[in-house]
Amino acid sequence: MAEARYGIVVGVDGSATAHAAIEWAVADALRRDRPLTLVHAVPSPVVVTAPWPEMPLPDEAFRVLDEEGERILAESRQIAERAGAREVATELAHATPVAVLAEMSEHAERLVVGSRGQTALGRLLLGSVSTGLAHAARCPLAIVHDEEPRPADAPVVVGIDGSPASEAATRIAFEEASFRGVELVAVHGWRDVAILDYPGLDVAGLQALAEATLAERLAGWCEQYPDVKVRRVVAGERPARMLIEQAETAQLVVVGSHGRGRIAGALLGSVSTAVMHAVRTPVIIARG
Predict the structure, then answer these.
(1) Residue 118 near residue 11, CB atoms below 8 Å
(2) What are 203-217's pLDDT values in tens digits?
(3) Which of these, 36, 123, 182, 252, has the minimum number of CB atoms within 10 Å of its CB?
(4) How many CB atoms lie under 10 A from the CB of residue 158?
């Protein structure tokens, strides 16, 4: 990844989840001693006129959108400063939010967005911006909900499957647990398919092998972060289900952007997709 000249970048749109994302990002920036950049994207207004020729839009339409964007940025800066931010920059961009933030992610240490935006549909589903960035971001992406924050002593949870993306997630999770002074819960579910009913399957042997492999994966990180207490959770269950269960009592969940599947390089992994849609605590999606 290129030099992280933006520090921590937050996408803002005036919604409640964007406000929660700002407050979460401020705490993150203070812990990590990083600058904060607040970004609002102003997409070009579109008038659907087909099959007729394009209709030119008046300059007034663009001026109104820019003024609203500046208002949102000013409000967002106030939220950040009230939360204690020390170094805050703002940027008004003219493109779609996903395009703007994905481009900035090339030079950011972390992206932070709310889980959904201002639209009525966004209140029911994970927002289009957070979903789009989960696929397009080139740096770790934090997705924040407008929920009551979990207790400060709640653990950090990480999903580990041995893939490069899960190794990146493990690094972030240890760092976050160390910064926060909390326990790290390392989760490994070794049931990718419905295999437990196969006759003659050595379930106990598979469990022992999974436990030994996870311990080996964690050994170097435990040496690097001796202050972090690690609890290992290993079972013949589907990884997504285990992570979603552990997230109920966690303050943060970290997952890789894709796992060990054959088409993992092309798509967001099924586990990370399920987790980011299901949990209500902040999620960081790491890049391999």
Answers:
(1) no
(2) 888 889 989 989 999
(3) 123
(4) 32
Query: How far apart are the two ends of the chain, measured CA to CA in Å?
Result: 11
Q: Residue 95 has what DSSP assignment?
A: S
Q: What is the DSSP string of 7-33?
A: -EEEE--SSHHHHHHHHHHHHHHHHHT
Give residues with Cβ within 8 angstroms of 257, minimum separation 6. 134, 165, 268, 269, 272, 285, 286, 287, 288
- Which H or E run contains 235? strand 230-235
* Radius of gyration (C-alpha) of the chain in whole angstroms: 21
CA atoms of 59 and 64, how far apart (whole Å): 9
Q: Let me know: does 88 contact 75? Beta carbons within 8 Å.
A: no
Token pair 């990180």 in the structure block, residue: 221
Q: Model's pTM, two decimal places?
A: 0.88
Alpha carbon distance 257, 164 (integer Å) = 10
Distances (CA, A) of 166 to 112, 262, 284: 20, 15, 12
Rounded distance, CA 66 to CA 59, Å? Answer: 11
Edge-first strand listing for the sheet containing 283-286: 88-93, 36-41, 8-11, 110-114, 141-144, 283-286, 252-256, 156-159, 184-189, 230-235
**pLDDT value at 259 more than 80:** no
Task: Please count the other Cβ atoms lying within 10 Å of the Cβ belonging to residue 3.
Answer: 9
Token pair belonging to 90? 């703002």
Instruction: Tell how many helices (H) and how many strands (E) occur in the chain.
Output: 8, 10
Q: What is the reported pLDDT for 45?
A: 64
